[in-house]
Design brief:
This protein has a seven-stranded mixed beta sheet. A seven-stranded mixed beta sheet has the order 7-8-9-10-11-12-13. It has six helices and 14 strands. Helix 5 (about 210-220) packs parallel to helix 6 (about 240-245). The termini are close together. By secondary structure, it is of the alpha/beta class.
């Protein structure tokens, strides 16, 4: 039997809630540990869960600041931070950082702004490579299939399974308005992570985010979804209200993400 575990590292919208962090999620399968996104405030929460030197890779859904900015302090930690003694091994190679198209150029510009050297050497602790938004990446015991979402800039959802099994299925919707590509990707998910940024749906038409009710509607339309986890929220609307709005249109389990919550998923 293959298993996955999701741990919420950060679940705020574009700015961290008081005491929270922006988008970041840790996925584990066997000995493999992959971080999805690395938003502001997430490194502190991540270090309570794992020594970052024991990650196998980081994968970015898109290049907005609330999903990327803690790569900067993480880079400094990997460069200059002392060893803590619990590393599985002291790395003699960079940590894979797997980015959407345009990510390498984005990081070069960001590194140049920080260091003033053109950005070529800033990200040396990482081995940066670009994924295909319509393709699949295998990282140790984890397989990730991508699909584009509907957002203000190009963004990609991820369907995650153990590398050697079809179940369990974890789907991370990243940032998106309701869109068919995400609905199709989410079919049969054991755990579906969807943003619930908005108190009300966007008008006149969805552009880049969704409400809790829209997340619940998408989960129902996907079919076979067992558990919906609402995330990427500001913290103004009570979480009980968010969950109730999703439950009104989705019959499965609904939770609202909080930092450090873990969700084990067992394969069939």
């Amino acid at each position: 039997m293959a298993d996955l575990t999701l741990t919420v590292i950060g679940c705020s919208a574009a700015a961290p809630r008081a005491g929270g962090a922006s988008s970041s999620y840790l996925v584990a399968a066997g000995e493999t540990r992959v971080l999805l996104d690395c938003g502001p405030g997430s490194l502190s929460f991540l270090r309570k869960e794992i020594n970052p030197r024991n990650l196998d890779a980081i994968v970015l859904s898109h290049l907005h600041a609330d999903h990327t900015l803690d790569l900067i302090p993480l880079c400094y930690l990997l460069k200059y931070g002392p060893l803590e003694g619990d590393e599985q091994w002291v790395r003699d190679r960079p940590l894979p950082l797997i980015v959407p198209p345009g990510g390498e150029a984005f990081l070069t510009r960001l590194g140049g702004a920080l260091e003033g050297d053109g950005g070529e050497g800033f990200w040396s602790p990482f081995a940066i490579r670009t994924y295909d938004p319509h393709g699949t990446e295998t990282i140790g015991g984890i397989a990730i299939r991508f699909a584009p979402t509907k957002h203000y800039i190009p963004c990609n959802a991820m369907r995650i399974t153990p590398a050697n099994a079809a179940t369990p299925v974890l789907v991370y919707g990243a940032d998106s308005a309701p869109v068919e590509t995400l609905t199709t990707l989410a079919h049969g998910a054991d755990l579906l992570i969807l943003e619930a940024t908005l108190p009300e749906p966007e008008k006149p038409a969805p552009v880049g985010h969704m409400s809790p009710a829209e997340a619940g509607t998408l989960a129902t339309a996907a079919g076979g979804v067992k558990h919906l986890l609402l995330t990427h929220y500001w913290g103004v609307v009570p979480t009980e209200q968010m969950a109730a709005e999703a439950r009104a249109v989705f019959s499965g389990v609904v939770n609202v993400a909080v930092e450090h919550a873990s969700y084990p998923l067992a394969g069939s």
